[in-house]
Amino acid sequence: MRILITNDDGINAPGLEVLHQIATELAGPRGEVWTVAPAFEQSGVGHCISYTHPTMVARLADRRYAAEGSPADCVLAALGDIVKFTPDLVLSGVNRGNNAGENAMYSGTIGGAMEAALQGLPAIALSQYMGPRTAGLDDPFDCARVHGASVIRRLLDHADWSQGDDYRLFYNVNFPPVPGADVAGLRVAPQGQRQGSRFAALPYDAPNGRRFMWISGGSQQATAREGSDVAVNLAGYVAVTPMRADLTCHASLDRLSAALDTPLGQAAE
């Protein structure tokens, strides 16, 4: 198996080393693992691409490259120039911090996996939830390191990897904020939303009088609806969420069409 890995924490992030270990185990002795990751941290860039300016790519070692761009840029750089084959699998992560709930909307880790799926490739985003029980660990990525390869193998064996005419599915995996030995199990869960926890802008006045702001996240221990990715993670389970690059609310289409599908200027009855 030939695997492409990327992340949003940057080429030197410890989570990328964890992912390389996971990918190497999956690829096997006859496989290959190629790394194309951002030269600098790109957390929070989502599915951003460097559409209006060029991106420098540097070869750091055999099968190891850094790009001055987003995770999605890294996937595009890999497929368009660096690797001369079609990867069997694209893995993005392991992110330091969860990408469950509303975090998924901002995540560069998910953006890398989404770009791979848009390019027609099987892709999985992986993130390690952090919390009080990981803070004292010698390896805060212990849970992802211990269970990562097993979870991916189960996805490869049982998930929907078909490529039809619609947006291809990719998968978001969040490892819970517990040591690997304490994981309660695996749960397939929808994306949740933490209650009363939002990203916000914090204004700051610099000594020269200029106005700046910091973006802050909300509490990662806030609750979300039962059965959601956030809830199962906080209960000690690995959360797997199928996703696709389709923001349509399909449940609303029929009702809204019945009300709005009329000539302009003519009200529906």
Structure explained in plain terms:
Its cofactor is a divalent metal cation. A divalent metal cation binds at residues 8-9, 43, 95. Pfam families: SurE (PF01975). This protein is α/β, with parallel strands linked by helices. The protein has one domain: Survival protein SurE-like phosphatase/nucleotidase (Stationary-phase Survival Protein Sure Homolog, Chain: A, 3-Layer(aba) Sandwich), CATH 3.40.1210. It is 27% helix and 24% strand. It is built from 7 helices and 11 strands. It has helices at 14-27, 71-82, 108-118, 132-135, 142-158, 229-234, 253-260; strands spanning 2-6, 32-38, 57-61, 64-67, 89-96, 123-128, 170-175, 185-188, 200-205, 211-216, 237-243. A 9-stranded mixed beta sheet has the order 3-4-2-1-5-6-7-11-8, sandwiched between helices. It has a two-stranded antiparallel ribbon with strand order 9-10. β1 (2-6), α1 and β2 (32-38) form a beta-alpha-beta unit. α1 (14-27) crosses α5 (142-158) and α2 runs parallel beside α3. The chain starts with a strand and ends in a 9-residue tail after the last helix.
